[in-house]
Amino acid sequence: MNGKSWVERPIEPFGMEIEARLEWPLAEDVQQRMIALFDEHKLLVFRNQKLNEADQVRVLENFGSVLSSHGEYREISSDGALGAGPLTWHSDLAFTEEPYKIISLHAVEVNDGQSWTQFANGAIAARDLPGELIERLEGLQAVTSIASIQSHRVVGYDTPSDIPHQVRPILMPHPRTGEPILYISWMQTCRIEGMGREESDAPLQQLFDELYRQDRIYRHEWNNGDFVIWDNIALQHSRCDLEGMLPRRLQRIVIADKSFFDLLPQFKVGDEKISAWGSGAKELTLN
Ligand SMILES: [Fe+2]
After folding, report:
1. Which of 72, 81, 143, 267 is least enclosed, having the fewest CB within 10 Å?
2. Within 13 Å and on the Cβ side, how many CA atoms surround 269?
3. In angstroms, rounded to a whole number, what is the distance separating the alpha carbons of residues 276 and 135?
4. How many whole angstroms from 90 Cα to the centroid of ligand 1?
5. Confidence of residue 283 (pLDDT cuts 50, 70, 90)
6. How far apart are the C-alpha atoms of 35 and 19, rounded to whole Å?
C-alpha cells in the first residue's frame, strides 16, 4: 500500500490478519482498505504493534466515532477493578438500545500466549442456517437482558423483564452493512418473545448450537503487541479465566456514541441500585 509493506492473510474460519506497521498519518488507501476488509471480515488482527492510547484512538477514528474516556475503561487488566473471571459468549451492551459498534484491544503487557479471547460470527451463522430454521424464525424476536453473572449462562426463560433488556429480531439487519446477523447470545438472551418455555427453549438451543459450532470459532491467543479490532454486532466474544495471569493488560478503545453509564445511569456508583448487583455492576462493561 503506497509503497509500504502490507500483507493480508485470511484467518480461519473468519477474519483477516494484516502484516503492516501502523504509523501516522495513515495513507488514504490504507484507511480505505482497512474499512473494506473490516466490513467483509468483521475482525482484523495486527501483530507487533506499539500503540499508545492516542495512537489506538487514531486508528479507530478511521471506523467511526470513538467513545470518550469519560466514565469508560480504557484498560482491561486482570488485577484491576474489572476482575479476572472468565466471560461467556456476549456482545457488549446488547441489552441496551445502543450496543457498542466496534471494539479494539491492544496487548500492551501480557505473558505471550497465556490468555485468549475467542470470537463467534453471527453473520456467517445467519447465512448458513438451515432453510427450515430461517422460515421458522421469520418475524420472531428475542429478549436479551443484562446478566448478573457473566462467567456462565444464568439468564433463562424466567428472567424478569424489569431489568435492562431489549427485544430485537433474532435475525437482525446489521446497522452498517444491512446483512442479517444472528443476534442472540449465550450470556444475555433469555427467550423468544411470545412463546411458551418449551416452544422457546428448543429453537434457541438449536440456534446457539449453530452459532457456537467449534469449527466456526476463532480463538485469539494474546501476545505482546497484538492489536485486534472486531465488529461487536456481527461477532460475539468470550474469554478464558484470567485468575493468576499477571501481567495481563489490554488497552481498549471502542466505537460507540454512548457509554454503559450514559445508557444506564441507574448503575452509576452512589445509586442504591448498584448494591442489588453487587460487584457485578462494574463488570458489566467488560471484555
Ligand atoms: Fe465484552
Report:
1. 81
2. 4
3. 40
4. 6
5. very low
6. 16
